[in-house]
Design goal:
binds magnesium ion, 12 helices, alpha+beta, Rossmann fold, four-stranded parallel beta sheet, binds adenosine-5'-triphosphate, D-amino Acid Aminotransferase, Chain A, domain 1
């Protein structure tokens, strides 16, 4: 079989390896950490992603190259594109690495984003705040994740402070109007190198402190809204000539308007539910898409709630596993554990997730609540 090289060796890569291996592919990953989640399930080159020599070593041992995080150095991606087969190309990375380029691409696909403005000074930040009203959000154009690189501006007086705090990052900055959403949704689209497109069922996402806590599927919004969200994701993938997965994060307002928040050209945390709940997982679909295989069915097999396990949840999970499994049986829910093999259970670190398969979303939510593991404050 062919060998797939993955830039990055975290949990997304690990699940790509676990879900892609049954198709007959071998995997080799590049990650600087000697104890990376992928190292336990695939061959690994220990090296930095921005080290051309390490990247070339990966390329020399792989037939197809992909990535599991979007901050791969653009120069390295371009180098790999010359030396080997990178079906996703470097353009998709280049666009999604930068919020302003990304927003323009989303608009070019005919989708709506929150009104935004690039700002280059404290004075321009204040102008944007005056135009959009408060609250609004100042974001760094590059490098942000889990809400890092963001400042929610709650009054005009905070504009200067927000600019001062985020401008030290040295990247472009963008102010966005605050969308008073009813809920957050996401759709993962897969587009194959031969142009076939499929979307996974819409997930409803609940964040705590800007980190995904729950994905609920089916999302609790009208069918019509779900169809529109799926179409929007497919249109964006098509318009961007994406290959592989493209995750689309959305805000949904009470009247059913959809705004695209951001994109990720890779497997997405809100798509982990697909492992047991869909006929094909997002990880298998990604491998199919980049290898030019026919895409698998994305049909939902069962309602599901995915709950993330962060570092602070590990002691309670370990301690209560038996009791918690018994209460799941009583509620007729089926929790499927996915631990990523990370050694250090640091606060807020993504250590694993549980896909709670269920007959009713309410049962899964009741179980999550009953376990007392995710109770906060
Ligand atoms: P990720 O870890 O998903 O990459 P990120 O750091 O790139 O996160 P965003 O997804 O842009 O950040 O924003 C994080 C969260 O902040 C969103 O999921 C949403 O809850 C809230 N948020 C961001 N922008 C807005 C906005 N314009 N209006 C309302 N809420 C927002
Ligand atoms: Mg992001
Ligand atoms: Mg996000």
């Amino acid at each position: 079989g062919s060998t797939i090289g993955i830039l990055g060796g975290g949990q997304l890569g690990r699940m790509m390896v676990l879900q892609g291996s049954p198709l007959g592919y071998q995997f080799i990953t590049l990650d600087p950490a000697t104890n990376a989640p992928c190292g336990q399930v695939s061959q690994q080159i220990v090296g930095r992603y921005d080290d051309p020599q390490a990247a070339e070593m990966l390329a020399s041992q792989a037939d197809v190259i992909t990535y599991e995080f979007e901050n791969v150095d653009a120069d390295v991606a371009a180098l790999l594109e010359q030396k080997s087969y990178v079906p996703q190309g470097s353009q998709l990375l280049y666009t999604t690495q930068h919020r302003l380029r990304e927003k323009r691409a989303i608009e070019a696909a005919g989708a709506t984003v929150a009104p935004y403005m690039e700002v280059r000074s404290a004075a321009e930040t204040l102008e944007a705040v005056q135009q959009f009203g408060t609250p609004c959000v100042l974001k760094t154009a590059t490098g942000g994740y889990d809400g890092k690189g963001q400042f929610v501006i709650r009054s005009e007086e905070q504009a200067g402070q927000a600019y001062d705090e985020l401008s030290v990052a040295g990247t472009e900055l963008v102010v966005e109007q605050f969308i008073h959403f009813q809920c957050e949704l996401s759709v993962i689209a897969a587009r194959s190198s031969n142009g076939e497109i499929k979307t996974f069922p819409v997930a409803e996402n609940i964040h705590i402190d800007n980190i995904l806590h729950l994905s609920i599927v089916p999302a609790r919004v009208a069918e019509e809204v779900q169809r529109r969200a799926e179409q929007m994701a497919a249109d964006i993938a098509e318009s961007m000539d994406a290959v592989g997965l493209l995750a689309v994060e959305l805000f949904c307002t009470e009247d059913g308007q959809l705004y695209v928040n951001e994109l990720a050209p890779r497997p997405h945390n809100s798509g982990h539910y697909t492992i047991e709940a869909c006929e094909t997982s997002q990880f298998e679909q990604h491998v199919r898409a980049i290898c030019g295989l026919p895409l698998g069915s994305t049909a939902l097999r069962s309602p599901v709630v995915m709950v993330n396990i962060l570092g602070e949840h590990i002691p309670a999970i370990t301690e209560k596993m038996v009791q918690v499994d018994l209460s799941a049986t009583a509620l007729h829910v089926n929790p499927k554990y996915h631990l990523y093999g990370k050694e250090e259970a640091k606060h807020k670190r993504k250590m694993g997730h549980i896909n709670v398969l269920c007959h009713n979303i309410e049962d899964a939510l009741a179980w999550i609540d009953q376990t007392n593991i995710w109770r906060h404050e």
